[in-house]
Amino acid sequence: MNYIIMDLEWNQPFSKELCLTMASGLKFYGEIIEIGAVKLNARFEIVDFFREFVKPKYYKKLHPMVKKITAISRKDLAGGIPFPEAIQAFRRWCGKDSTLMTWGNDDVPVLCDNLEFFDLDKSWAADWYNLQTIFGLQTGNGTEQKSLQFAMEYFKIPCERRLHDAFNDAFYTAQVCSHLDLTKGVGNYDRFLRLQREQDVRRHSGAEPYHSLISTERGRYPSKRAAFGDRRFAAVHCEDCGIHEVPAGSWMRQSNEKYIALAHCERHGTFLVRMKFRRVKGGMDVHKVVWRATEEMIQLYRNLAEKSRQRKEPFRSVG
Asked: What CATH class is the domain 2-203?
């Protein structure tokens, strides 16, 4: 058995109007432009590396924010290969007896979206391990999501390569894993996952199954207030019809770095949107994620809203 620590970077359309639709009816928000991976053997030892730039077919022009965050250039993409070829090479490199591992819950949904959009088999990506979960439970951080940078600092791993690079992120994730008991983590993962899902119902840490994910979007702002004040970014659009702009309303704080809100569409129901902030030089990186809201998510939001009302500390979007 091999374990594949995978990280992806993806491009996004310049506007909602330019966003393509998958056969399932969901929007195609991220076209993969880089695949980075580290292969571990059955003893969780590093045995090989993989990196491939993908030449985009649909979102050919790099979104300015993606270019800024990832530092990927047009030259990198021009030298890339088409996604079907890249995935074929990646799967061949992984081998038949292998399992994916990622840091967080964003990469596999995007991978599955790309496989679906290119009409490729995605069954092989159905089972995977979220290393954030194992890290959190083995370091006393519970199921709360922690960034890769946080984990590196926790284990005093020096950052000598640029983050938000698929290969570098996979490499540093492997370094973090060298400090974890992956044998125990993998062996008890089902129990860990049940615990995480129970926590998600109460706290919504963001670990929803990929089929409930509607969209992801990244931005960079000088402050949290500036992000909430950007009406286009802070708004939530109905992802089914692509027409209705649904106001995000009041944002409720989950933690110092996460805020959630509910958005409603009369035709298509309720969505939950989360903004996650990460302080960087000169401002804040913002990762906005939208899910189709379950009853548990709606109740979670209501509970946070009630606590906020009692404290009289709501964070409302500007404008």
From this structure: alpha beta
